[in-house]
Structure formats: C-alpha cells, structure tokens
Amino acid sequence: MTAYKLVTIDAPYWGFGSRLEQALLAGERAIFLESHRNCFSWIDEWFGLTLDVMRELEKQSDSSLN
Fold it and tell me: Which parts of the sequence belong to the Phosphatidylinositol transfer protein N-terminal domain (predicted)?
C-alpha cells in the first residue's frame, strides 16, 4: 500500500509562525501515520471482502456517524 498526502501550511505570524507551522505539520504527520498503521493492523478484517460487502460497511458506518 502506498499513500501520499500533500499538506501545505502557511502561518504568516511574525515571531512564532515557523514554530506553529512545524507543530501543525508534526501533528498532521502523527495522525497520518497512526491512521495508516491502524489500517494495516486491521487488514485481516477487510482483506478478501467483495466490493458489495465493502459498500454495505460504508453505508453502515455513514449512517452511524451521521
């Protein structure tokens, strides 16, 4: 599995803009890595499912979240 994500942050605040940008990018990277680690660790639950079953799971999760 390969995943790419482009994140652009511009904090034009003199004095702490650079620190703010770095903190936000570090947080985004941590979220990105954690979500992909979870996706890989749950591979046994979703590997081999048909597209129809996956669509049904999407509908169930969408209805429970909304």
Answer: 1-61
Give me the DSSP letters along the chain.
-------------TTTHHHHHHHHHHHHHHHHHHHHHHHHHTHHHHTT--HHHHHHHHHHHHHHH-
Residue 24 near residue 9, CB atoms below 8 Å: yes
As given in the structure block, the two tokens for residue 2 are 């390969």
pLDDT per position in the chain (66 positions), as tens? 677 788 888 888 888 888 888 899 899 999 999 988 998 898 888 888 999 999 999 999 999 888
Single-letter amino acid code for the residue at 51: L
Question: Over the range 7-19, which residues count as b (16 or more CB within 10 Å of their CB) and which as e?
Answer: eeeeeeeeeeeee
